[in-house]
Amino acid sequence: METSFRRKAAAVTFAVLALTLVGGGIAVAQPSAKAPQAVAKPVNRGTNSQPPVTAESARSAKAALKAGGVTTMAAASWFTVVNANGTKARGTGTVLKYGVGEYEVQFGYNVSAGAYLATISRADACCIPPAGEVAVARRLSTPNAVFIQTRNSAGVPTDLGFTLLTHTP
After folding, report:
1. Which ranges of the chain would DSSP assign to H, the alpha helix?
2. What SS3 state is found at 138?
3. Which DSSP string do the residues of 46-89 spell out, in sequence order?
4. For residue 93, which of 50, 60, 54, 59 has the smallest C-alpha distance?
5. Sign of torsion, CA 123 103 105 166?
6. Torsional class of 86: left (φ above 0), alpha (ψ -120 to 50), beta (otherwise)
7. Are 144 and 106 in contact (CB under 8 A)?
8. Residues whose CB is less than 8 angstroms from the CB of residue 127 and which lie 6 or more positions away in sequence, other chains included
């Protein structure tokens, strides 16, 4: 009797597994009921590309590297607080503003192997900063700079103040 029960249990298990796979396969293989026009398109979140490096930016970055010298620390962290208009409130680095919500922060040392963290902030101690988004990336073709993009909550490029933290190994 025990053998019969084992066989039935195995048969039921395989049947359930087979039905699950077949049922899941049918659900995945069915075409969408919506017409192509009705399919939701992702919201345009602005551009995800960096503007080209200008000749002025390249000269400024090279000058900052020469002035910064070589650091002998094993690891170091620096911060930069930037106002919405692209002026540096405090911290290290030189700030360049390219367009609406597009900033570059240059340092006197190579940050290409580092980590970057940015958050929407205010330079004063007055109030809570406005809601929004901030993205940070290594600056293309400039080893001593970081590129920052700020957007409002709808994803539209907007000038917002931010705090940037860089950590280099």
Report:
1. 2-29, 55-68
2. strand
3. ---SPPPPPHHHHHHHHHHHHHH-----SSEEEEEEE-TTS-EE
4. 60
5. positive
6. left
7. yes
8. none
Mean pLDDT within 8-16 = 57
pLDDT at 35 over 50: no
Q: How far apart are CA 136 and CA 126, in angstroms?
A: 25
Of 157, 147, 154, 169, the closest CA to residue 74 belongs to 169
DSSP one-letter code for 101: T
Tokens of 24: 């899941």
pTM score: 0.62
Lookup: tokens for 152: 């409002």
Place of tokens 């540096």: 88
Query: Residue 4 is encoded by which pair of tokens?
Result: 């019969």
pLDDT band at 17 (very low <50, low <70, confident <90, very high): very low
Only one residue has tokens 């922060």, namely 105
